[in-house]
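ok here's F-box domain-containing protein, seq below lol
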Amino acid sequence: MTESVLDNPIFVRSCILYEALHRKPIDESYKNFCEKLGDDVMDYVDFEFWFYRFYGGNHDLNDDRMLEFKSLSDLPIEIFHRILNELDFRDRMILHKVSQTLRSVVGDFEVICHKEVSLRLCRDWSILNFSHHNVKYQRCDGGCMVKYEDVDKGVPLGDQLELALHDLSNSMKHPKLQLNSFAITFSSALEQDARKKVIETFHSWKWPRIRNFTFNGIHQSEIKTTLGCLNSEAIQTISLDVSRVSEDFVMNTGVYSLEQWKRAKSISICGDCKLSIPFANLAHLAGFEISLKSFTREYAVEIKNYLDNFPNKIQSGTFRSIITDPIEIGKVFNPDYALGSENSLDYNTSNFCYTIQCGPYSFRILRKADKQSIPVVM
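and the structure came out like this:
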């Protein structure tokens, strides 16, 4: 048979139609087709498409097969949902990266729930954790190695930080993400440019409502810009482990005006830092733990005056600092105070009863009860 005839798609399709009209099994029909026209005229996949089209009653030889191709996002929602239910965590991550259209289709009905999402960053590696799923991005010669469970995949010319942030961003931007806690850790070896890129990425998100935020290795200069990008609506706990790079003990006062700071119920700022924080900026909290530059008698007087004269929500508050004279601090609250075995004393205001604990390395306030709840002894 001449090549010019075999190059004519209409002729080739008419031969397939001939086989389909005989209503024989497809394997036998394809064998007959190859014997008549040749083994290299059409592969089995294309033959199968046209055979079943003709077999089903559509005998149009001029139809363009490309019109029949549908993308995954064009599938009926019910079928697409069934496919999603069969995918594991890694496959779902890959699916989100296929295209913006597909990511939107997935987001329309898929609710993603994570108890915690965390990101740990070092100079040569990044680790993403979604609840109990770990993905590691390791710098290697010529690119990056991505590891999930027992599967390693090399990404030529890939940057470990870029890949980790891309995957994290796809998840954090999901319209139906439900997330309880978010935590990030910066290694001391992480370059300044990388730190800046991560925080800039945070600002590009529309953050979900999270209850708990943790940042290990944060610099004092990064606190305001980082907290400022969070969704303040549901924030309850802020925990910062500071890595100090200067002798700057005063935290940017703009931090205290942030809605995230005002709405939090518990704040912890510890680590390699020694801060100076006015007590009034902590009184709205139910709990706090702060590393102070110094805890002086003057600061104790500031605390006492605030407890005596202003409303507060404090249930438990701890200051970490070297206290050279705990007895002097204790006498601010009780002139007769003498250092005892428990280093504690009771202090009552018009509204609340407190236990004050003062030692050489910490000062703590514990609310015991409000005055109205204390039974009157006759």
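fwiw DSSP finds 13 helices and 14 strands in the chain. kinda neat tbh
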